[in-house]
C-alpha cells in the first residue's frame, strides 16, 4: 500500500501538476513527465473507441507488474492520475478527495489561470496532508 | 464475465491473427490491402459476389441454378450450400474498419508498454488496462509476438491464458507447422487447427460464459 505519484492533466493534454511521493518509482525529468502525460491523454481517447460492446469510458486503471495508474476524468476534461502500488484498493476514493482539494484550493483561487500549471502553496500543502 | 476478442501481432507490428467471441459491436471488414491474408476470414475484405444482401432477394432469383423459386417471394430450394460468409443477422458495427481497429490496438499497447517501462525505470512489462466496458490484457513473447485479449472489465488478469495459448496451440499449430510462413509479412498465421484449438481452450475457461 503505497502512493508513488500524482499528476493533473488539463483538457488539452498538458501536465499542470506533478508530484512524486516516496521512492517507489524513479524521478524523471519534467520534460519526460510532460511527454508521458501527453501520451496518456491520447491513449485515453483511443481506448474509449476500442470497446467491443458499445460506448465506453476511457482507460480507468492501467497496470504494470509492480504499480498501477488510476485515472479520474472529470466532467470538464481534467484528468487526475494517481500512481500507486498494485495492492492499493482505495485509489478511486483518494482521487475523489484530490479532486475536492483541487476544487477548493485551485479553482477557487482568484490568482489561478485555468489550464495553466498549478503553482499554489495551499494546494501543495493540502496534497501533502492528504497523500503524505 | 466473458471474453471478447484476441489479437496476435508479430514483431513487425502487423496483425497476424484475430478471433472474437461475444462481441456485439463488430468491426467492419478491413479495406482492400489493409490486412494480410490468413488473419481472420471474418474481417477479410470480401469479394463483391460474396456480399449478397438478404434485403435484395431479386438477385438470388436471377441465378440460373435457382429454378425452384416461386413468384410468391418464398425461396423453395436453393441449389447451393449455405456459405459461411453470407450475411449474418445484422449486428451493430463499430465505426472502425478492422484494419484501423487493429492499428489502434497496437498503438495503444505499444505506447502503454513504453510508458510503463519509462515510469518504472526498469524492464517492467505493461500487463493490462481497464475501462468501464472492457479490459485489455497483453502478453509479449521473447520473439516479439504480442498476444492481446479483450475481456470483461471484472475479469482477473488473463495473462496466464495468453501464455497458455502461446505454449499450447501457438507452438503446436503455428511454430511447428511447416505450412505457416511465420514472419513473412505476407500472410497471417490463421489455420483451422490453431483456430479450433484456441477456440476450445477459450470456451473451456471459467471466465467464458
Give the number of domains of chain B: 1
Category from helices, strands and their pairing of chain B: alpha+beta
The largest pleated sheet of chain B is described as: 5 strands, antiparallel
Question: Class of chain A in CATH?
Answer: Alpha Beta
- What is the alpha-carbon Rg of chain A in Å? 15 Å
Oligomer: heterodimer
Number of strands of chain B: 7
Calculate the terminal CA-CA distance of chain A, rounded to whole Å.
Answer: 13 Å
| Alpha-beta content class of chain A | alpha+beta
How many structural domains in the coordinates of chain A? 1
Helix run count of chain B = 4
The fraction of residues assigned to DSSP E strands of chain B is 15-25%
Major sheet strand order of chain B: 2-1-7-6-5
- Report the sheet-strand fraction of chain A: 15-25%
Largest sheet of chain A: 5 strands, antiparallel
- What spatial form of chain B do the alpha-carbon principal axes imply? globular
H-E string of chain A: EEHEEEHH
Helix content of chain B: 25-40%
User: CA-to-CA gap between the ends of chain B?
Assistant: 7 Å
What global shape of chain A is seen? Answer: globular
In short:
The complex is a heterodimer of chains A (132) and B (209). Chain A is of the alpha+beta class and 132 residues long.
Structural commentary:
The complex is a heterodimer of chains A (132) and B (209). With 132 residues, chain A is of the alpha+beta class. Chain A has a single domain (3-131), classed as Beta-Lactamase. Chain A contains three helices and five strands, in the order ββαβββαα. In chain A, strands 2-1-5-4-3 form a five-stranded antiparallel sheet. The mean pLDDT of chain A is 92. Chain B has 209 residues and is of the alpha+beta class. Chain B has one domain (3-44, 91-203): Beta-Lactamase (2-Layer Sandwich). Helix content of chain B is 27%, strand content 18%. Chain B contains four helices and seven strands. In chain B, the strands form two sheets. Chain B has a five-stranded antiparallel sheet with strand order 2-1-7-6-5, sandwiched between helices. A two-stranded parallel ribbon of chain B has the order 3-4. Strand 3 of chain A pairs antiparallel with strand 5 of chain B.
Amino acid at each position: 500500500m503505497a502512493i508513488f505519484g500524482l499528476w493533473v492533466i488539463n483538457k488539452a493534454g498538458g501536465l499542470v501538476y506533478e508530484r512524486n511521493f516516496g521512492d517507489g518509482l524513479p524521478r524523471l525529468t519534467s520534460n519526460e513527465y510532460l511527454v508521458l502525460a501527453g501520451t496518456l491523454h491520447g491513449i485515453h481517447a483511443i481506448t474509449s473507441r476500442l470497446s467491443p460492446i458499445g460506448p465506453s469510458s476511457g482507460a480507468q486503471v492501467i497496470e504494470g507488474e509492480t504499480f498501477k495508474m488510476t485515472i479520474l476524468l472529470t466532467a470538464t476534461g481534467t484528468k487526475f492520475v494517481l500512481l500507486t502500488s498494485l495492492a492499493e484498493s482505495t485509489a478511486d476514493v483518494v482521487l475523489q478527495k484530490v479532486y475536492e482539494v483541487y476544487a477548493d484550493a485551485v479553482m477557487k483561487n482568484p490568482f489561478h489561470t485555468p489550464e495553466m500549471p498549478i503553482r499554489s502553496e495551499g494546494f501543495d500543502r493540502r496534497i501533502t496532508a492528504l497523500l503524505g | 464475465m466473458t471474453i471478447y476478442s484476441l489479437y496476435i501481432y508479430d514483431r513487425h507490428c502487423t496483425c497476424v491473427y484475430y478471433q472474437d467471441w461475444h462481441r456485439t459491436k463488430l468491426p467492419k471488414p478491413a479495406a482492400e490491402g489493409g490486412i494480410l491474408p490468413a488473419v481472420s476470414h471474418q474481417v477479410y475484405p470480401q469479394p463483391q459476389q460474396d456480399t449478397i444482401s438478404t434485403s435484395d432477394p431479386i438477385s438470388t432469383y436471377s441465378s440460373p441454378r435457382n429454378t425452384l423459386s416461386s413468384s410468391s417471394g418464398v425461396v423453395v430450394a436453393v441449389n447451393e450450400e449455405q456459405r459461411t460468409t453470407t450475411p449474418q443477422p445484422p449486428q451493430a458495427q463499430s465505426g472502425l474498419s478492422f484494419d484501423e481497429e487493429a492499428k489502434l490496438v497496437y498503438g495503444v499497447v505499444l505506447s502503454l508498454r513504453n510508458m510503463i517501462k519509462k515510469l518504472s525505470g526498469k524492464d517492467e512489462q505493461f500487463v493490462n488496462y481497464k475501462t468501464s466496458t472492457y479490459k485489455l490484457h497483453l502478453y509479449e513473447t521473447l520473439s516479439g509476438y504480442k498476444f492481446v485479449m479483450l475481456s470483461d472489465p471484472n475479469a482477473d488478469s488473463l495473462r496466464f491464458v495468453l501464455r497458455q495459448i502461446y505454449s499450447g496451440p501457438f507452438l503446436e499449430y503455428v511454430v511447428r507447422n511447416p505450412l505457416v510462413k511465420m514472419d513473412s509479412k505476407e500472410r497471417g498465421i490463421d489455420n483451422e487447427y490453431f483456430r479450433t484449438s484456441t477456440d476450445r481452450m477459450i470456451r473451456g475457461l471459467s471466465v467464458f460464459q
